[in-house]
Structures are given as structure tokens and as C-alpha cells.
Amino acid sequence: MRQTISLAAGWRFSKTAEIPAAFPETWPSVTIPHTWNAADGTDGGNDYWRGTACYCRTLTAPALAAGEQLWLELEGAAMTAEVYCNGKKLARHEGGYSTFRVELTPALQTGENLLAVLVDNSENDTVYPQKADFTFYGGIYRPVHLLRVPAAHFALDYYGGPGLKITPVVDPDARRAAVTVEAWVSGAADSVVFETAGQTQEAPVQDGRARAVFRLENVRLWNGVVDPYLYTVTASLASGDCISARYGCRTIAFDPQKGFLLNGQVYRLCGAARHQDRQGLGSALTNAEHEEDMALLREMGANTVRLAHYQHAGYFYDLCDSCGMIVWAEIPYITRHMENGRANTVSQMTELVVQNYNHPSIVCWGLSNEITASGGVNADLVENHRILRDLCHRLDATRPTTVAHAFMLDMDDPFVMAADIRSYNLYYGWYLGELEQNDRFFDEFHSKHPDTVIGLSEYGADANPAYQNEHPEKGDWSEPYQALYHEHMLKMWSERPYIWAMHCWNMFDFAADGRSEGGKPGQNQKGLVTFDRRLRKDAFYIYKAYLSGEPFVHLCGRRYADRTDAVTQVKVYSNQPEVTLLVDGRVLARKAGDKVFVFEVPLTGEHTIEAQSGQLADRMTIRRVSTPNPAYRADGGQVINWFDRPDEMHRAGYYSIFDTMEDIKRSAAGAVLLARLMARVTAGYGDVAKSVTLPEAVQRQMDRMPLEKLLRQAGKAVTPETIRQLNDALNQIPKAK
To answer: Buried-most residue among 306, 516, 618, 622 (CB within 10 A)?
Structure first.
């Protein structure tokens, strides 16, 4: 009989690469899950500790029957782990996001044993990830178990997988399915007994594998968030070992014109990407945190989630199955291709597919993310992707592969077609260009490649919810601009049915210790929800208006309490057809609309604002003040003041920050000034941005922008004094003729 024992408690921890000879009583006690970067990996400075640390505990070996085995299971140890028992090295695992198991039996001694795990997240050129815009937490940050199994048992050493592989082939029209079940067995066993959907079959074990096919009539389909119905397969051996796995009966398809199809029907996908970490905890989550994340996704109305940029916890994939969430699953092959890392991409991809094959929620395997951002396309990178694509096809003939391409990759580059389907990460309207360029990109791509499946895998704008602006603009890190940005992107998506999926970047703010911007060092603030999950930003509710069937009204700008204008704009998001706005209990206006309702409200003092639709209501308080609240703007609003006085910054016949970068570059002196400025601005976005080289087409788009637009977005990287000095310097350079 299989026995699973949690090993959460009893561990000691030290930042040392040495295995102790005896139990280290003086080391601090820790509970698993644990990471050593929960604080320093989220505070900015790009200086969080990366190195090798040791986890150690005693283990009293149980009295094992003849042939019984004892295994150690680690669901996640980042990034490389070595397991020792009584000083003997038993295994090494490279890859911080997948489950692996180690047999302890040969190394056990009677009585007390010393178990040690060395975990290493230091820099190297063989194990991914090494360069990316998120913190690479170190530690044993997912659960650890002991597994006690009989001599004949379902395999524990098959790439950390469940020992069962379930492949339903479904005819959704006839409501019929043929379900193939395979099991891997270790030890001497004649047969496996399978049970599912009220049926039982006994299948012989041949070369360590057993196989059975079940015919299901009147099958209940796994139908996304509408009806995520799950079946269960149970497999048992005469030895008493027994395991089970859930599966869903569904079909998936990707169409260049219709987008994604579930069970033969168009099923428009819109949701968000998710990083697993959280403020105060880092990556060391419990099931409660996973459940809260899923609840927020469902509250928003999302029907898809991109689990970026690595394999997520098995428990979260289970939640996706039971909640009907469509999943993009991927490995951390990201940003920088490493020629010495090919074997690691293969092992991580193998583990991702084998461990998660049975999840009906997963519809594609992600090969890489923005892998051309640092170094572009080369032959070794292309070959690495071919190997991964072919590997996925061998392991799983039921799902396509995909890639999230960097916006810098030209849409006509052959590498765009490296996977079966593809998506782009676009940041027009935030890092460069204007929002409308997202629309033009998709229109052009679809026109050039009408038979190609295309999606939008990342897009977003950072927002510190403390920052507010009556006239929001790109680069102000304000909550209103983020909301405007997502209003545009959702409308763009709704008008283009061929986009197979749209995944907002990101559902939650997350740690990127190399960042220093927007008032919160160490965080990427593109989340629709804050890092601690306590605050839903206004942009969260425009998604809810588009995606959720739960009736609601939401007043935007509740954190913008102090306003200076005599008439202020009040915006309401709702999925209802009509909204009434009341000011101090009196009806101001009643409007019919579609998701976004805008009202002009006179301000004289402090007012209670209420939005109503039927029985639904939302309230907030705003007031008129004489001077702007400096807390509402990055750097107290000083930077913006320079842009508000263009007449004072022009000098006839000379350059200023209001000229385009293209024009300024016509002067050698102007080009030098811009190069220095760009280096300073880029540094504020962290170490990833420093290695990014923009292709000529994208650089030309940036060059057509007025320099002033770039400066508005630069935040603390460019101070008011720097802007003054830069403009003064430009005012000394005659315009090129």
C-alpha cells in the first residue's frame, strides 16, 4: 500500500555549500515551502543573494517489508538540487520548477538518518532561466514528501510523472470517447486493474507498461468555465499500490480565422499571465495562496491563463482543470539563448509534458519566451527550437507547440514560424509607440499571413495605484492610464476574432529585483492586482466588464480623492446596459452604454459619488482642493511641469525635447546626447533591458516619436534637472538643414 508522508517540518537551513557530518542543531529552523529570497528578491537593487544553501533534517527510517522502497519527492527546488543521505550523494536535478524523486532505500541505515539537500540558484550558462525580468528565487519552495511503496509499484522515476498517461479521443457531436490509459510499472507485476466511468479492465504488464482502452458513451464534455467536468482513472496492482488521475474529454483546435475552438465551437480566449510569487512569501506558497489567485482570475471573468515563465505547481494545474481555465504551459527558456543550455531545455520540457500531460486545461506547450530579445536569431537557437518542437510532438501528439515572440522580432522573419502556433508580446503604448500600433500590427500580420494562427501573449502598462492623473498619459505610472490602456486593448481584441488568445501581462504585480521605477523598487507593476493581492486596480474591472457574467458596477478613481479641476471626469465600468450617477444623493445623469460610462461632475467641495444600475451600487468620496496632491504623481509631479511649459523650452532654429528623435539624430551632437540619455533610461528597467537590441524597423518607429514622449515615461531615471540640462544642451545645437 502506498503511503505519502509530508516533510514540511524539522528542517534546518544555512547558506553553505557544505554537507554537515551531523545534524546542525545551531542552524535556524525553517518550514518547507521556503525561499531565502522572499525579502531581498523583492526590494530592488538587483542584489538579491544567489548561491548554494543547505537544507538538513533527521529521518527515522521506517521498518520496511521485503522489497519495499522509500523515496523522497520534491515538487520544486530552485534552481539546481543535490540530495544526500548519510553523506552519500544520491541525485542531482537541474531545473527549479518541476517535480523530481530520489530513492533513499539503498542509503538508509537503521534508526536515525541524516538527509541533506544542497540547493543552488547562482548564475551559470547551463540551467535556465539566467536572464529575465523576474526574480529567480532560491530554495525548496514547494512541498516535500516521503513515498513508501511496495516492491511492485507504479513508476516513480519516469521524469517525475504521475505514472499514468490518459489520452481521450473525443467525438463531441456523438458524445462518444475512446480513452486510452497507460501505466508505467516498476518491479514484478503481471497486470494492472484500471477503473474509470464505471468500467473496469485488467491489462497485462509488458516491458514495464500496461495499456487499456475504454469506450465512453454519452460522454460529458470538459467544456471550459461553462462545465469543467472531470473523470477519474484509478490504477491498482496486486501488491496493493494504487494511484489515480483526473482527465477531461474535450477537443481543441486553432483556426487562422476563427481563433481557438473548444469541442468544435468558437471559444474566445481572454485572460492574463501569472507569476507564482507574492509579497512577503516570494515563491514559497501554500495551497491557500494558489486558491486565492484562481479565485481572482475567475472573479475577473478570465477563461485562460498563461502560466509564465516556467512550470507551475501541480496544485495550480489541478485548479485550472476543476475551474475550466484554458492554460498555456511553458518552460523558462527565456530572453537569452545559451548554447550550453540545450540539454536543460530538453530535460525541462520533458518533465513539463510528462508531469502535466493529463490536464485537460492545458492546450499548448510553450517552447520559449522572447528568446530573441538578447542576441537575435542564430542557427543554434533555431535548431534548439526544432528539437523542442519535435520532442513535444513525440511526447504528446494531441497539443500544438507555441512561442511568445518579442515585439522586436520582425513578423516576416522565418523564426516566427518555429512553433505550430505563435503569439507576440507587444508593448506599443507603453515602452514605445502609441496604442494604435497594436491594432496596426495585427492587421498587417493577418494580411500578410492569413493562414497563420496568431495570438497576443503579453501587453501591459505599469501602474502604482497611489499615482493618479486627471489627464493620464503614457509613462506616468498612473492607475488611470493603465485603465485607458486596457480599454483600448480589449476593444482591439474584441474586433479581431482571429486572435487565438489574449493574455494580459500580468494578473498580479511580481518581483523583478532589477527594476527601480514607479515608486516601488523591485517590482514589475503591470499587474491588474497588487503584489500582496489586496487591491484590485481599476483596470481589473474593465476586464470584468468584458469577460464576466456577474452583474456589477465599479467607480474608477476612488484613490483619486483630491482633485483640482472645477469639473472632473468620473468613469464607471459595468457589464450592465445603463448606469445612473448620483452626486450627494441626487441624480446627475443616466446613461446607456457599453462597458465604459463617462460623466462630467462639477466639484465645489467634498462629494459622495454613487453609481447605480438596478440594485447594483458603488460609492466613493472625492473633493475639490486648491493644490495638487504630490503623492499622486511620480516625483511629486515635478517632471510633468517641464512639459507643461513648451514655450519656455523652445529656441528658434535650435533643437528641443519637443523635436523627434529622428530629427535630433541628424546632428552628430544631438545623436551623442540621445545615446547617453537612452543608456540612462534603459538602466531603470533592469538588467534585461540592457541587453535588448532593437531591430531597425522598431528603432525607426521610436525615432519618429518626439523626445518629450520618451522622457514622460522615464520616471526617476530622468529627473527634472536632467530634463532642463538636456533641453538647454539641445537649445545650443542648430537644426540640421
So the answer is: 306
Within the chain, how many helices (H) and strands (E) appear?
14, 43
* The pLDDT of residue 62: 87
pLDDT of 115 = 98
Indicate where the chain has its CATH 2.60.120.260 domain(s): 3-146
Cβ burial of 157 (10 Å; 0-12, 13-18, 19+) is middle
Could you tell me how many residues make up the chain?
Answer: 737
Distances (CA, A) of 421 to 260, 364, 442, 501, 726: 11, 9, 15, 11, 45
pLDDT confidence of residue 637: 45
- Rounded Cα distance between 311 and 307, Å, is 7
Distances (CA, A) of 70 to 55, 106, 151, 482, 644: 19, 9, 10, 52, 71
- Cell numbers 494504487 correspond to what residue? 242
Q: Tell me what pLDDT residue 638 has.
A: 40
- Which of 3.20.20.80, 3.40.30.10, 3.30.70.260, 3.40.190.10 would CATH assign to domain 268-536? 3.20.20.80
Active-site residues, by number, are 370
C-alpha cell of residue 562: 483630491
Contact 317, 361 (CB under 8 A): yes
692, with CB counted inside 10 A (0-12, 13-18, 19+), is middle
The pLDDT tens digits of the residues spanning 378-435 come to 999 999 999 999 999 999 999 999 999 998 899 999 999 999 999 999 999 998 888 9
Question: What is d(CA 320, CA 360) in angstroms, rounded to the nearest whole number?
Answer: 9
C-alpha cell at 42: 523583492
**How far is 572 from 595, CA to CA, in rounded Å?**
8
Of 355, 339, 344, the closest CA to residue 94 belongs to: 344
CA 559/CA 465 separation, integer angstroms? 7
Instruction: Determine the Cα–Cα distance for residues 656 and 649; give it in Å rounded to an integer.
Output: 7
Specify the residue for cell string 543547505: 54
Provide the pLDDT for residue 717: 60
Mind giving me the DSSP string for 419-487?
A: SSEEEEE--BTTTBS-THHHHHHHHHHHHH-TTS-EEEEE------TT---SS--TTS--HHHHHHHHH
Using CA atoms, how far apart are residues 727 and 207, in angstroms rounded to an integer?
76
Fold of the CATH domain 3-146? Jelly Rolls (2.60.120)
What pLDDT was estimated at residue 616?
98
Dig out the grid coordinates for 485 from the structure. 490602456
The pLDDT of residue 632 is: 94
Q: Is 671 helix (H, G, I), strand (E, B) or coil?
A: helix
- Which numeric CATH code is attached to 164-252? 2.60.40.10
Residues of the chain with pLDDT under 70: 635-648, 680-698, 712-721
Three-state SS string across 676-733, please? HHHHHHHHCCCHHHHCCCCCHHHHHHHHCCEHHHHHHHCHHHCCHHHHHHHHHHHCCC
pLDDT of residue 439: 97
pLDDT at residue 714, rounded to an integer: 62
Cell numbers for 201, please give them: 479492465
pLDDT of residue 2: 93
- The architecture that CATH gives domain 563-624 is Sandwich (2.60)
- Could you give the residue range(s) of every CATH 2.60.40.10 domain in the chain? 164-252, 563-624
Q: List Cβ neighbours of 36 (8 Å cut-off, separation of 6 or more).
A: 13, 15, 49, 53, 137, 138, 139
- In whole angstroms, how far apart are CA 11 and each of 25, 54, 59, 166, 436? 10, 10, 10, 37, 54
Query: C-alpha grid cell for residue 487?
Result: 480599454
